[in-house]
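Residues determine shape. Next comes a sample protein:
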Amino acid sequence: MGSSTDSTGKSLTDYPRPSVAVDVAVLTVDEVLKVLVVERPDGSYALPGTFLHPGERLADAAERALRDKAGLTGVDFHQLAMLDDPERDDRGWVLSMAHGAAVPVAEIPAEAHLAPTTDTAHLAFDHSEIVGMAVDDLRRRCAAEVDPGNFLGDSFTVLDLRLLYETLYARSYPKDTFRRHLLHGLEPTGELRREGTGRPAEIYRRRGTPLPASTAAFLLQ
């Protein structure tokens, strides 16, 4: 059996230990790219978060935070980064594992508060930084596969996709160049949609294959 002390004669409990928290940036598209925030007891706003309970995994804590603070269940989230600035929380020494998620606005509870991702400087702690991480992460993922957040549902037109990506990346794209790059990740459904007086638009679904590096370079330039 190994020793319960280290080379200095100290045991694990002799060392100061930080509290560990999780915070989740849930992004959605509601005309613009927004993030779900919750009101704190002091009237300020923050991302849904919570402290890790004894014996609990980080993913379980994140799931609990989304359920209890935001009324969200079944959300596909992932880790972004561990935030370890000793001064990040004025309540004490708190490490936070930041998580990101993308959820269609129809799945966000009607009573939830959504803030534009460009207006998060007022959020508590370093949560504005977490939002920035989540936005960058979502853009990278959208450059690697078509609409991984499923914002558009199962089928859509190329115009739908271009308008979504222009919202996500906060820029405009030439329609023909955009179509040429994103068609790598699309397959036609054989259906058409008539929009206005123009000719019907072809409807596509995701192919489920990674987008080429040239598409990422185009989107992220």
About this structure: The chain has a mean pLDDT of 94. Helices lie at 58-70, 127-144, 158-169, 175-182, 213-220. DSSP finds five helices and nine strands in the chain. The longest strand covers residues 19-30.
